[in-house]
Amino acid sequence: MHASRIPSHAPANAPGRLADVIGDFPYRIQLAGGWIDQPFVSQLNPSPPGSMVVASLKPTCHLMDRAGMATGSRKIAMALWNGRLPAGNPAALVEQLYEEENRGKTEPSGRRT
Asked: Residue 42 sits in which domain range?
């Protein structure tokens, strides 16, 4: 059995692919550094912008929310683009996600670049 398929004993109305349940957007984990995109932290950095190491992980299972896997950004992106990353200029997509993530916030967080 292929790991991303629903087993044959699953209910008839079960989705056919794991991505149908958890989406195709990658999770993101910060391996080193971090928080430099948060204004209350970055304002204390004596030599901005700082650095970090980030890895993108293809989802093979659902990961717990609020566990350091950028699930907040992932949820916003999935809602914004109906579960699939649209074709287009990556920089424009980053800008669109940034704007959506910070809508109504007095102190936006995240980096545009």
From this structure: 18-101
